[in-house]
Amino acid sequence: MSFDQLEAALQERRTAHLYRRRRLLESPQGPEVSVDGQNCLAFCSNDYLGLANHPALKQAMIEGVERFGVGGGASHLVMGHSSAHHELEEALAEWTGRPRALLFSTGYMANLGVINALLDKQDAVFEDRLNHASLLDGGLLSGARFQRYLHNDAASLKQRLDKSDARRKLVVTDGVFSMDGDIADLPELARTSREAGAWLMVDDAHGMGVLGQTGAGCVEQFGLSQSDVPVLMGTLGKGFGTAGAFVAGSEALIETLIQFARSYIYTTSMPPAVAWATLASLKLVREESWRREKLQALIQRFRSGAQQLGYELMASETPIQPIMIGDAAEAMRLSEGLETRGLFVSAIRPPTVPAGSSRLRVTLSATHSEQQVDRLLAALDELRGGVA
Ligand SMILES: *Cc1c(COP(=O)(O)O)cnc(C)c1O
Q1: Residue 85 marked ligand-binding
Q2: I need a labelling partner for 251 at 20 to 30 A (CA). Which of 32, 43, 276, 356 fits?
């Protein structure tokens, strides 16, 4: 068999301006990075609080390595569940106000694991159309009847729930939508789900650390309890600056995942030192609310500046601030123009977002300065020609 067929598909993707390539990062995460041998100012990291290269986390990681070694060594159910993992699970449960929490090696695996442990062919899963790929994949893989509802639209969800006679119904949504930056209307979604006897699962990958008084995310911001959001998932590689993910919920939920979530059972535990570093991260997330306040100030500064330049922003109060462009080639032109000026902002194109909604996805971090945001705005001003 030849690979010509693959070459044709690759060529098609190039022609459509959708080809992706990887950049080589030669520095730690931070506002100023070295990429492909060039120093530049980056606005595309998910390290929202600026913790990925924080001295306290690096110190904790080193200490974790000294205490626990490097590899997890085995799966959690065999010999890989270390006291570092366990302590982090207890701390995450306490922070989120849930009886228990369970660590996964990545957010992608957590989402596949949870949905597949809870549902099978007799069941139904209801997903927001703009949910993260891992949630969609989890739903499709589960074999449950798969339905998408209109973006952040509880009425559209209700219509679908009312028609369903599935054994179990699981409603699944991003807390903060990863490509649009808007926050799900969780109080409405929770009410609609409860009334239909469905469970609500929230993936708060982009809200954890960023939203709520102690950074516990959109459930904290809205004051929602476990009965409102029985399945709460968060990731540790974004706001927390480390790696991995967790699910928080009832005793029955967590025990079900330990017994049935295949992406939990059949994989090596994350390196315990990562869990140890995450404990240090959780302390900063909870206590240093100035990081959230600084982020909010930068968000306001960016939004008012970009709007004055005539760029179309989306309804986002989070550090994800997409500039809507539409055309994939135009999004690439802007992204390349920024790069020539030493600024790094990723262009997001289909299939990550729907056709015709290509965008520049600006993300802000608490470690950006106001001057750095102003540099981005000045470059966007220079590039404006093709936009208006
Ligand atoms: C990043 C992300 C994930 C995946 O988490 P990883 O830990 O990076 O695998 C899941 N859901 C959402 C909404 C995300 O943005």
Answers
A1: no
A2: 276
Q: Are residues 139 and 240 in the same domain?
A: yes
What is the DSSP-derived secondary structure letter of residue 388? -
Does residue 203 share a domain with residue 131?
yes
Q: Give which of 226, 217, 225 is closest to 253, Cα–Cα.
A: 226
Q: Specify whether 241 is located in the same domain as 318.
A: no
Nearest CA to ligand 1 atom 5: 107
Cα separations in angstroms, 258 against 81, 85, 243, 255, 261: 12, 14, 20, 5, 6
Instruction: Walk along the chain (388 residues) and give the pLDDT tens digit of each residue.
Output: 678 889 999 999 999 878 888 999 999 999 999 999 999 999 999 999 999 999 999 999 999 999 999 999 999 999 999 999 999 999 999 999 999 999 999 999 999 999 999 999 999 999 999 999 999 999 999 999 999 999 999 999 999 999 999 999 999 999 999 999 999 999 999 999 999 999 999 999 999 999 999 999 999 999 999 999 999 999 999 999 999 999 999 999 999 999 999 999 999 999 999 999 999 999 999 999 999 999 999 999 999 999 999 999 999 999 999 999 999 999 999 999 999 999 999 999 888 888 999 999 999 999 999 999 999 999 999 998 654 4
Q: Is 72 annotated as a binding residue?
A: no
Q: Is residue 302 part of a domain?
A: yes
* Domain that includes residue 84, residue range: 55-287
In a domain, 9, yes or no: no
Is 293 found in the same domain as 283? Answer: no
242 ligand 1 Cβ < 6 A? no
| The last residue of a domain, from among 262, 287, 312 | 287
Pairing of strands 358-363, 346-348: antiparallel
Give yes or no: residues 112 and 43 share one domain. Answer: no
Identify the active-site residue in 85, 206, 294, 368.
Answer: 206
Active site residue 283: no
Q: Which of residues 239, 269, 287 is at a domain's end?
A: 287
Start-to-end CA span in the chain (Å):
49
Report residue 156 as tokens: 């559209």
- CB of 108 sitting under 6 A from ligand 1: yes
